[in-house]
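Tutorial handout. Part one gives the primary structure; part two gives the three-dimensional structure as tokens.
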Amino acid sequence: MFENVRIVLVNTSHPGNIGSVARAMKTMGLYKLYLVSPKLFPHDKANELASGALDVLGQAIVVETLEEAIADCHVVVGTSTRSRTIPWPLLTPRTCAEQIMAQPKEVNAAIVFGREQTGLTNEELHRCHFHVSIPSNPDYSSLNIAAAVQVLTYELRVASMAHPEISTWDYELANNEALEGLYEHLERVLVQLEFLNPKAPRQLMTRLKRLFNRTQLDVMEMNILRGILGAVEKRIK
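Part two.
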């Protein structure tokens, strides 16, 4: 049911939190755990708090960067508790789960959780198509990372029971690695056109990323855009 859904933890500092996350995942039927540069892993404390979810820990994939963890993902959701200067499409846990479960079965989806104290950086959040925020008591909004994972995975479980299998789109969605290539190409062309001043970018690329992330480009649409950009480059030369 969730073979294409992964939980990604970025720079987790306490190994016990990794174990608790593995337990939260397994209770809801999720098994794909990606760890981005964890401070301490493997670790006995992670095993201790996994409490029966050692299989999830055992197959956890450890990578150095967030880019590696989400490179082949088509839908990436970043968890965030702070309001941003440039608003991003913001989901509740329920709408997040519904969005993921409504995708064709071959779509790879990731929910990304940041550091225990500081969460995800703005740059990391800009790599996500959507943001999700868990409503909490404004006077005490601190939520343990395992508890946050439990909320999101519970909603995925509920949403999975409500969604029938979705028919396949004519082309698969462009994954995160391909989209980053598009953004680099677009930025290069905009600089050549002198539409973008690299010394004073004024959040232009951030807003364009938000635009394209919101549309969920498929591979053919992305190739069309890359072809247009290539034609513009030739015309400039």
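Part three, for discussion. The longest strand covers residues 5-10. Residues 5-160 form a domain with the Alpha/beta knot fold (CATH 3.40.1280.10).
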